[in-house]
Design brief:
The protein is α/β, with parallel strands linked by helices and about 650 residues long. It folds into three domains: about 300 residues, Glycosidases (TIM Barrel), CATH 3.20.20; about 190 residues, Rossmann fold (3-Layer(aba) Sandwich), CATH 3.40.50; about 45 residues, Golgi alpha-mannosidase II (Immunoglobulin-like). About 30% of the residues lie in helices and about 20% in strands. The chain contains 19 helices and 26 strands. The strands form six sheets. Strands 7-6-5-4-3-2-1-8 form an eight-stranded parallel sheet. Strands 10-9-11-12-19-18 form a six-stranded mixed sheet. Strands 13, 14, 15 and 20 form a four-stranded antiparallel sheet that branches. Helix 5 packs parallel to helix 8, helix 8 runs antiparallel to helix 15 and helix 13 runs parallel beside helix 14. The chain is globular and about 75 Å long. It starts with a strand and ends with a strand. Bound molecules: beta-D-galactopyranose.
Length: about 650
């Protein structure tokens, strides 16, 4: 695993560049990402290109032996361009234009903006595409950050109508698919279809789902435009994009299919404070981040990158954008990096080299303070660099468990949650955590990419959120001969957001003979116990079947059904129950488990084992292990690495 950093030469006097490069190298940095927001410096006025400074910056960094990732600057269209073509700006759902003054102020559907992107990407790629220092390109920056996937502009409206025509062919098909007879929502032509916003009350869920699919497709084609140019003008370089954490506003599988590497931006403390609804979690993991958040995303992006993935931005200290911005516990910068290594990252890169003393992110730490002196992350990186040199890089083998994650389903569950406390991604993470608490590695798979061979390595497969299940997946699951857990709400809708004709779980009934005849969502004060001590929360399903439930709730609704190796979990469970449920399923599937305390996590990579202590207590490991890093007494924020010993 190489170490990297994000660097903005345009923010600093040129006389500092050589010293920065030398200090990066001395710290163990090998990869540097640059220029992803530099459009106003590359082209201060239309057609007036200033590439000289970037040439000198690239040459300086390359002369130190640093490898460069060059970003296309399309996340920040400059003021002159917006003034010439204000229609580039995105429009929010209230019809308000999203103005200039920060970043990501463009609409993915603007054909004019696509032409401008092609122009700048072509110019930059022609200029730098053959430079020996450039190994990799990054397209744009964080598609969707600051809620920028959707736009309700005139361009988006026209493009959406066209998309609908292509998908449904006739307006009758669309009306039928969306159920528009309901509330007299029928259209007589594609030119009548509005964007889903501004209605009096809830919009048709099928309309919203179509718009989400359309918006996802817009991101994919926007990205492809850049990828095609870069492949042609800078052959032999890898192309990546930096995705985000806890983010499902577009289907990442389609953009990822066009890229060589999936990378993501990991801010564990920021995510916890911004995204977690659970106060207890927020308190417990305040300075470490949630113990499964980084791991889950590492597994997700490893799968999206078909094995090739990086952390391209990693939190080095407090950030500036969460509701509160605490300092990580000493040791966490090193621990987070080791966690990335344990999951097989090719590159682990921090955001950013030096803290900016100006503008929006002046309160965001870097590896250096604004005056150039070292911030505390540097010592941890030095320790990491010397430790990394002592372990070998083995392949990441398939895990025993595969979790099937569906981006569209996540969106479907958000469109009609049917219960205020139902957090779709949170529920997926809770299932992931429950498995990981048994010390077991998990791989993540995407429904449309699965075939018989994909499932073959696994002993246990979990359908974690597949609200609509493609027929092909059902067929492959029928051929799968390990254990299958189907979670609640899977198969409960068709692809067009209707209840399946044979009732939920739809085509999954081929795998287990039961029908869901009643569902209820539960407020947080109404948890329910089953007779065998499992505690249902948030969501429960009543099932009609000849199978006997494994347990029962006091009101006689059954709890959990099993037919051979196929298991149907018909409710959400609280943390302890979910762990117990999965521990039993892992045992059914013959998978070896190691119970991990709340803050301890264990992972295997090839012949290496890793232990991470995210918790406040000291954890004790086996003193007989042959430790390469750390030892059997694991203090908070500590890491241990040991070599598997053949019996
Ligand atoms: C990311 C973004 C970076 C920077 C960083 C701050 O979302 O890609 O440009 O803003 O956050 O944490």
């Amino acid at each position: 695993m190489k170490l990297g950093v994000c660097y903005y030469p345009e923010h600093w006097p040129e006389q500092n560049w050589a010293d920065d490069a030398r200090r990066m190298k001395a710290l163990g940095i090998e990869v540097v990402r640059i220029a992803e927001f530099a459009w106003s410096r590359l082209e201060p006025a239309r057609g007036e290109f200033h590439f000289d400074w970037l040439h000198r910056a690239i040459d300086t960094l390359h002369a130190e032996g640093l490898e460069l990732v060059l970003g296309t600057p399309t996340a920040t269209p400059p003021k002159w361009l917006i003034d010439q073509h204000p229609s580039i700006l995105a429009v929010d759902e209230n019809g308000q234009t999203r103005g200039f003054g920060s970043r990501r102020h463009y609409c993915f559907s603007s054909t004019l903006y696509r032409q401008e992107c092609a122009r700048i990407v072509e110019a930059v790629a022609r200029e730098f595409g053959q430079h020996p220092g450039i190994s990799t390109w990054q397209t744009d920056n964080e598609y969707g950050c600051h809620s920028t996937i959707v736009s309700y502009s005139q361009d988006a409206l026209q493009a959406f109508r066209l998309w609908c025509q292509q998908r449904y062919d006739t307006i009758d098909n669309l009306n039928r698919a969306w159920g528009n007879v309901f509330w007299s929502m029928e259209y007589t032509g594609f030119d009548q279809i509005p964007l889903p916003c501004g209605a009096v009350t809830e919009l048709n869920p099928a309309h919203r789902l179509a718009f989400w699919r359309f918006s996802s497709d817009q991101v994919a084609s926007f990205n492809r435009l850049q990828v095609d140019l870069l492949r042609r003008l800078s052959p032999g370089r890898d192309i990546l994009h930096n995705y985000m954490g806890n983010f499902t506003e577009f289907d990442h599988t389609t953009t990822a299919a066009d890229l060589d590497i999936a990378t993501w931006d990991n801010y564990p403390l920021g995510f916890l404070d911004r995204d977690s609804a659970d106060l207890d979690d927020q308190q417990k993991w305040f300075r470490t981040g949630h113990p499964d958040s980084s791991a889950f995303h590492h597994d997700l992006y490893r799968s999206l990158g078909r094995g090739r993935w990086w952390v391209i931005e990693q939190q080095p200290g407090p950030v500036n954008w969460a509701p509160h911005n605490p300092s990580p516990l000493d040791g966490m910068v090193r621990l987070w990096a080791w966690e990335a290594f344990a999951h097989g990252a090719e590159v682990m890169s921090w955001f950013r080299w030096r803290q900016a003393p100006f503008a929006q992110e002046q309160m965001h730490t870097g590896l250096l303070l604004p005056d150039g002196s070292e911030d505390s992350a540097c010592d941890e990186i030095r320790q990491l660099t010397s430790e990394l040199a002592t372990v070998e890089h083995s392949n990441v083998e398939p895990a025993p468990v595969a979790l099937i994650f569906d981006y569209a389903a996540d969106q479907m569950l958000r469109i009609q949650p049917q219960g205020q406390n139902y957090g779709p991604l949170e529920w997926v993470l809770q299932q992931y955590t429950a498995i990981r608490r048994s010390g077991v590695n998990v791989d993540i798979l995407f429904p449309h990419q699965i075939n018989d061979a994909t499932l073959q390595p696994y002993q246990l497969v979990l359908l974690a959120n597949s609200m609509a299940v493609p027929d092909s997946l059902v067929t492959h699951l029928q051929h799968f001969d390990g254990h299958l857990v189907i979670g609640p709400r899977c198969g409960s809708k068709t692809d067009e957001y209707q209840i399946p004709p044979d009732l939920p779980p739809g085509a999954l009934q081929k795998l287990i003979p039961l029908r869901v005849t009643r569902v209820e969502s539960l407020p947080d004060f109404a948890n329910l116990q089953s007779d065998d001590g499992f505690c249902a929360i948030r969501w429960r399903e009543k099932v009609s079947t000849d199978l006997l439930p494994v347990g029962k709730f006091t009101d006689d609704w059954g709890f959990y059904y099993r037919s051979g190796d196929c298991h149907y979990l018909n409710c959400c469970l609280d943390t302890d129950s979910l762990q117990r449920f999965f521990r039993e399923r892992l045992q059914d599937a013959g998978i070896e488990t190691t119970a991990c305390s709340t803050g301890l996590r264990i992972r295997q990579r090839g012949s290496l084992y890793f232990a991470f202590n995210y918790g406040p207590e000291v954890a004790h490991l086996d003193s007989g292990n042959r430790y390469l890093v750390g030892n059997c007494v694991l203090h908070p924020a500590e890491v241990a690495v040991w070599q598997h010993q053949a019996d």
